[in-house]
Amino acid sequence: MAKFQEMGEVISQVCLCPGIFDLTIKAPQIAAEAGCGQFVAVYSKDAAHLLPRPISLCRINRQAGTIRLVYRVAGYGTDEFSRLAAGDSVRVFGPLGTGFFLSDKKAMIIGGGIGVPPLLETAAALSRRGMRRENIQIVLGYRNECFLKDEFEQFGTVYIATEDGSTGVKGTVIDAINANRLSADVIYSCGPAPMLRALKAYSEEKGITCYVSMEQRMACGIGACLACVCNSTEKDGHSQVNNKRVCADGPVFNAKDIVI
Ligand SMILES: Cc1cc2nc3c(=O)[nH]c(=O)nc-3n(C[C@H](O)[C@H](O)[C@H](O)COP(=O)(O)OP(=O)(O)OC[C@H]3O[C@@H](n4cnc5c(N)ncnc54)[C@H](O)[C@@H]3O)c2cc1C
Ligand code: FES
Question: Ligand 1 pocket: which residues have CB below 6 Å?
Answer without folding.
Answer: 39, 53-56, 71-72, 74-78, 114, 117-118, 215-218, 251
